[in-house]
Design brief:
Order of helices and strands: HEHEHEEEEEHH
Distance between the termini: 45 Å
Helix content: 25-40%
CATH superfamily: Metallo-dependent phosphatases
Low-confidence stretches: none
Structural class: alpha/beta
Number of strands: 7
CATH class: Alpha Beta
CATH architecture: 4-Layer Sandwich
CATH topology: Purple Acid Phosphatase, chain A, domain 2
Radius of gyration: 16 Å
Oligomer: single chain
Largest sheet: 4 strands, mixed
Strand order of the largest sheet: 4-5-6-7
Length: about 170
């Protein structure tokens, strides 16, 4: 059901960022079959390592997509951002602060399966399918615009000596 929902969202040229723990199983024909199903969409697949992702799963990440390691900062083109690029820190785990969190850089994570999302923390968001189920009513992937709409409603969380205007 979940894989089918995600596959139905994807088309050639799309990008899917998976934030860890692809399957709670040892690498098996099932896990590789699921990866092949995603790859069949011809979307670009990017994978962050989760705590349940062992060596064999990481090999599948590398075989069917791009393995980004445990954390990665990406930039997504967005005309509403002053320099035209929305910076996003991807990690399996939620963080309280991250690089440039006080300047509007987003943080997306998945490990907590919607357990933390009821009290938003700055411009961070649980992007697990469990959160999508609660927010969207369907266990599927979030699209960029959906995340952007949620982030617009969230305030920066300024910690320690940082201010929004200092670089």
């Amino acid at each position: 059901m979940i894989l089918g929902n995600i596959v139905s969202q994807l088309k050639k040229g799309d990008s899917l960022y998976y934030l860890g723990d692809f399957g709670f199983t040892r690498v098996s024909n099932d896990l590789e079959g699921w990866m092949k199903t995603l790859a069949y969409t011809e979307a670009e697949l990017f994978f962050i390592k989760g705590n349940h992702d062992k060596r064999d799963t990481i090999k599948l990440y590398q075989k069917y997509g791009i393995y980004l390691g445990e954390q990665k900062k990406i930039k997504i083109p967005d005309e509403d951002v002053s320099d035209g690029l929305q910076e996003i820190v991807l990690n399996h785990y939620a963080m309280r602060v991250w690089d440039k969190s006080h300047h509007g850089v987003w943080h997306l994570y998945g490990h907590s399966h919607d357990g933390l999302e009821h009290t938003p923390w700055g411009k961070s968001m649980d992007c697990s399918v469990v959160s999508a189920g609660r927010i969207k009513g369907s266990y599927e992937a979030f699209e960029y615009q959906e995340i952007k709409d949620i982030m617009k409603k969230r305030q920066l969380k300024i910690i320690d000596h940082h201010t929004p205007n200092r670089v």
